[in-house]
Design a protein that fits this description.
Structural class: alpha+beta
Largest sheet: 12 strands, mixed
Number of strands: 21
Distance between the termini: 66 Å
Shape: flat
Radius of gyration: 40 Å
Length: 934
């Protein structure tokens, strides 16, 4: 059989398919190897994915949560300020024009609408106008006197009215009676003597106006202007800027003429003319102005735009914006608003809260970084033998790092995307860029920690690792220099925080964390010393477990210092954050206590309480004790024109209350009137408890105090206290009510104690007595005045919980890293005759030194950090609605925040080896003693 000749082929043509096949085969083997390794380390991969997803979700959620709380806080501030302050009111007084016709034309709807478009276009973002609530039109700026005698005159003064031809009335009100005003016939001019108007329900009810009522206001150079009321309207969105920028158009109010007596009041109300009736106001004495209100759209406000918003408001009020409007509308145009003051107050509140949030974010974020690095280190350490074998077989360091990076990225990138998605869905309506950047940073760190750690550990090919025991190891010069650098940076941060407060840079915000790092480095340096001493002391012991445990603890690898850093930093951060939350709660409780004086307060400001009321209140459920007091607000000391509150009390009951509440406790015997039933006179002055200001101003010697009913008593100050339950303020005198005249000793105040006071029952008992009821619990809740405060408190709580979680996770990573070594050690010792109980004691004693060091060090470091940093941290802004309610809310140590995390770390560090010893005893020793184990 003959062989068919093969035609000649080009060498490149043959090589190319073969090269493609080899490349595909390599890729397939790489993918197969990656799948195999992921299956082999499925548990580790799932744990890494969970860690990355949770950390990425927390990192992405923080900036979005801050944005949401900042937005809500700004909107609440603008809403609480009311539209008459937050609306930018642009107005033009009538100037000189060539003819009266030109002036009338300027007040008609067409030119007003055209000018409104110019005004709204001038408002720069982020000042977005609410078109529906931005009213415009013509109104009188001087109230006009109504000559009609049927209108109410409380003190004989006639009603004053503001007339406004406000546009778009029909869409902002519904008709309650009658119809909306309109103009008929010829266009309205300055000579028009009769117009129609509408009034709101409040105006009609308070001024007695009905449909068809006729009101006359004074005219200029002609007869009065007659206004016929054709309709009564009900405002839609009465609290909106359309009605509330000029509240008098919605609700009349009692006013007083300057220089008149307080009782000389008159009604000031508003009449709403037809939209095209503005020229008629030229014939009155009201000095009509054209006006355009720019009401900010509250829904469009963003907390991070406060500075830009303030600039936009300033530009429209007195900057380039108003100059531009003067060129296109009128040269005499003016703009005014209090929105800039509202923004300044909000910025001041946020400037006091943001540094505290930065403290929490830096502390918890740094812990997350440490834990991610530890996770990469644990993974690299668990695969040390595999990676060393690959290096010994010729694997390059870059190739090894790239392969490990691919393994980690396959797990970390989807987990990071999942965490980011969860944060975006749970917290909508906030900026996305910062959240994406935070989640991306977490994902990159998680992807790079394992390869970098492995690359550093295997940069040189080694057959085996030298044992680097904790006791035998000597710190290098590089480590010494690094530790000294951290010490200097931490000292500078603490010093700046104590001197300038928490409103500083990120370095200042890292002061609590750096304090924990310095303590961890110091303890890591001192840790070998007690181990050496204990090892020498136990060399002559007969028992086996204790010397062997100390020897094993002393031979722990140097890598164990990193968990110590993580644990101490986490415990310090958790203690600091917990103390912040406890300080906020304590500050609110103290401010509420100072205002109420007890757990509850029933008080009358118009005279004495009914005689039966104290007995009714005492029998109510939840009332444990009650103290009666008679408070006189306007007692006047001798030779003084300033009044001082004087409280008459029963010394024994009042002293018991003051001691229980912690408000100026005193000895009851020092306040008791010696001669019962006698009034304090010059020969027998009443002992008095006084505030420091009263004692400094009037002295402690006997002096007379004039009472409102003309009587007087002589008092002598025997004790000085900063606070007292019966009186809120810095000025007070407290005396025995037995020494006061009968009229002055009447009970005006009931001070109640009890843990479960029922506000509804107290108000029901005091109904009809003109007495007010105040509860400490209700007053405490009023101090959370802004979403910024409540949001910051929640964020701090989440940060503290996350910090504690990362601390426990760091400990778990440490336990997992050393679990195989402990298992192998225990298995070998079991083959040599060690019992199960001895094995448990051995593992517990081996882990106890470092666990005790971390727990005790965290406790002491947290206490020291709070004591060092408390002068620079003021909690009044985040805790109180009004910082003046309490003179500084300082940071104090919270025992629970210090003790609970440290005890949890100690229990977990000791319990994990004990559980492992129990489980190893049930499994046996065969699996732990495989050929090739170290």
């Amino acid at each position: 059989m003959t062989t068919r000749p093969v035609p000649p082929q080009d060498a490149g043509t043959k090589a190319k398919p073969r090269q493609d096949r080899e490349t595909k085969a390599v890729r397939q083997r790489a993918r197969a190897g990656l799948r195999t390794r992921l299956r082999a380390f499925a548990g580790t991969s799932a744990a890494l994915a969970l860690l990355v997803a949770v950390t990425a979700a927390l990192a992405a959620a923080y900036p979005r949560a801050v944005d949401r709380y900042a937005d809500a806080g700004l909107r609440r501030a603008v809403e609480q300020a009311l539209p008459d302050r937050t609306t930018v009111q642009v107005q033009v007084p009538l100037g000189w024009m060539d003819t009266l016709e030109e002036t009338e034309a300027a007040l008609r709807p067409g030119p007003l609408t055209a000018a409104r478009a110019q005004v709204l276009a001038t408002a720069e973002k982020p000042l977005v106008a609410d078109l529906a609530q931005s009213a415009y039109g013509v109104r009188t700026t001087v109230p006009l006197t109504a000559s009609d005698t049927w209108l109410p005159r409380p003190s004989g003064l006639p009603v004053h009215l503001v007339l406004a031809a406000q546009q778009d009335l029909a869409s902002h009100a519904r008709i309650g009676a009658g119809r909306l005003p309109r103009t008929t016939g010829a266009p309205v001019t300055a000579l028009t003597t009769r117009v129609e108007a509408a009034v709101t329900e409040d105006t009609a009810r308070r001024l007695g106006i009905r449909v068809g009522s006729v009101i006359h206001v004074a005219g200029t150079e002609r007869g009065p202007l007659t206004v016929q009321v054709t309709g009564i309207v009900v405002p839609r969105a009465a609290e909106g800027a359309y009605w509330s920028a000029q509240p008098v158009l919605r609700t009349p109010a009692l006013s007083r003429m300057p220089g008149f007596l307080p009782t000389d009041v008159y009604w000031l109300g508003g009449l709403l003319l037809a939209p095209d009736a503005g020229p008629a106001l030229l014939g009155t004495l009201g000095r009509p102005h054209r006006y355009w209100n720019v009401a900010p759209d509250v829904a469009a406000l963003r907390g991070h735009d406060v500075d830009r918003l303030a600039s936009a408001v300033a530009a429209l009020e007195s900057g380039p914006g108003v100059q531009r409007l003067r060129g296109v509308v009128d040269e005499s145009l003016e703009a005014q608003t209090d929105l800039d003051e509202v923004l300044v107050d909000h910025a001041r509140l946020r400037s006091g809260i943001d540094p505290l949030l930065l403290l929490a974010a830096v502390g918890t974020g740094s812990l997350a970084v440490i834990v991610l690095v530890m996770a990469g280190g644990v993974a690299a350490d668990r695969r040390r033998a595999e990676l060393a074998l690959l290096r010994a077989r010729g694997a390059s360091l870059p190739g090894l790092a790239v392969r490990l990076l691919a393994e980690t990225a396959v797990v970390a990138v989807p987990a990071g995307a999942l965490g980011l998605t969860a944060a975006l869905l749970v917290l909508p309506g906030a900026r996305t860029a910062l959240a994406v950047a935070a989640a991306l940073a977490v994902t990159l760190l998680a992807c790079g920690a394992f390869p970098l750690r492995a690359a550093v550990a295997h940069r040189t090919v080694r057959l085996h690792d030298d044992r680097d025991g904790l006791v035998a190891a000597r710190p290098s010069r590089r480590r010494t220099v690094a530790e000294l650098t951290v010490l200097v940076i931490a000292s500078a941060a603490v010093a700046v925080l104590r001197r300038q407060g928490s409103g500083g840079t990120a370095l200042v915000a890292a002061a609590p964390l750096l304090t924990g790092v310095v303590a961890a480095l110091l303890l890591a340096r001192l840790h070998p010393l007690p181990l050496r001493a204990l090892s020498r002391a136990t060399t002559r012991m007969r028992g086996l477990v204790v010397p062997l445990a100390l020897a094993q603890a002393a031979r722990a690898p140097g890598f164990a210092v990193l968990p110590l850093l993580a644990l101490l930093s986490a415990l310090t951060t958790a203690a600091f954050g917990g103390s912040v939350l406890a300080g906020v709660t304590q500050a609110r409780d103290q401010a509420a206590l100072r205002y109420v004086g007890a757990d509850g307060r029933v008080e009358s400001t118009t005279g004495g309480l009914p005689g039966a009321l104290p007995d009714r209140v005492r029998r109510l459920p939840g009332v444990r004790d009650m103290t009666e007091a008679g408070v006189i607000d306007d007692a006047t000391p001798q030779q003084s024109s300033r009044s001082v509150p004087l409280a008459g009390v029963d010394p024994d009951a009042y002293a018991r209350l003051a001691r229980h509440m912690g408000l100026g406790p005193f000895d009851a015997a020092s306040l008791r009137q010696r001669d019962a039933g006698t009034t304090g006179g010059a020969d027998r002055p009443l002992p008095a408890l006084a505030s420091p200001r009263v004692a400094d101003e009037y002295g402690t010697g006997p002096y007379s105090v004039q009472l409102p009913d003309g009587a007087s008593v002589t008092v002598r100050i025997v004790a000085v206290r900063d606070r007292t339950p019966a009186v809120f303020g810095d000025d007070f005198l407290v005396v025995d009510r037995a020494g006061l005249p009968r009229e002055a000793a009447r009970t005006t105040t009931l001070l109640l104690t009890g843990d479960a006071l029922d506000g509804r029952a107290l108000r029901s008992a005091a109904e009809g007595t003109a007495a007010g009821v105040f509860l400490r619990s209700e007053e405490r809740s009023r101090h959370v005045d802004s979403p910024l405060q409540s949001g910051a408190e929640r964020l701090y709580g989440v940060a503290v919980a996350a910090g504690a979680g990362y601390a426990l996770l760091a400990l778990v990573l440490t336990v997992l890293r050393t679990a195989p070594e402990r298992g192998a050690l225990l298995a070998r010792l079991r083959t040599m005759g060690m019992t199960r109980s001895q094995g448990r004691r051995l593992l517990i004693l081996t882990s106890l030194p470092q666990a005790f060091l971390a727990a005790a060090g965290g406790l002491l470091t947290g206490w020291a950090a709070i004591r060092l940093l408390s002068p620079g941290v003021d909690l009044a802004t985040i805790a109180l609605a009004s910082p003046s309610a309490l003179e500084g809310a300082v940071l104090r140590t919270d025992p629970l925040s210090l003790a609970v995390p440290s005890l949890a770390v100690l229990l977990l560090a000791v319990g994990a080896p004990a559980a492992q010893a129990w489980w190893s005893g049930r499994r046996g020793s065969v699996r732990e003693l495989r050929l090739g184990d170290q």
